[in-house]
Amino acid sequence: MERERKLLQQAVAVLAVIPVGTGLYGVLFGQALTGDAVSVSAESHFRYLSGLLLGIGLGFWSTLPSIEIRTGRFRLLTLLVVIGGLSRLIGLALTGVPSLFMLGGLIVELAVAPILCLWQTRVANRYAEEYGVAEA
Predict the structure, then answer these.
(1) pTM metric for this prediction
(2) Which residues cross the membrane (predicted)?
């Protein structure tokens, strides 16, 4: 049980670097990543969405110390990521195939995040069985 918990913590810690890093970069540098010139309003919106991404990553990191009892928070964060992935998928259907980095994001959002959520649920259930503690 403890080994699996540690592996889950390590996986989440490493994977949350993606939203924290890209979110922070977007907040600080805006659209500079794409090199596209955009309006001030589009730039503001991009930075806002980057801040949300940063917040999601920090939220995942906040589950690490007691990941086995943070099921509600973990599920909410996963839901937000999946909704973003579904939105990206709609964009793919409406405007075409984006860059490989964006396709990688889509895979993380629609496959990796739900798998991690299922893994967290497994760890939480095993913890509850072993210690008689319900999820929080």
Answers:
(1) 0.90
(2) 12-33, 45-64, 76-94, 100-119
Could you please report the per-residue DSSP string of the chain?
-HHHHHHHHHHHHHHTHHHHHHHHHHHHHGGGGTT----HHHHHHHHHHHHHHHHHHHHHHHTGGGGGG-HHHHHHHHHHHHHHHHHHHHHHHHH----HHHHHHHHIIIIIHHHHHHHHHHHHHHHHHHH-----
**What six digits make up the tokens of 107?**
């895979």
For Cα atoms 59, 112, 15, give the angle at the middle one, nearest 5 degrees: 45
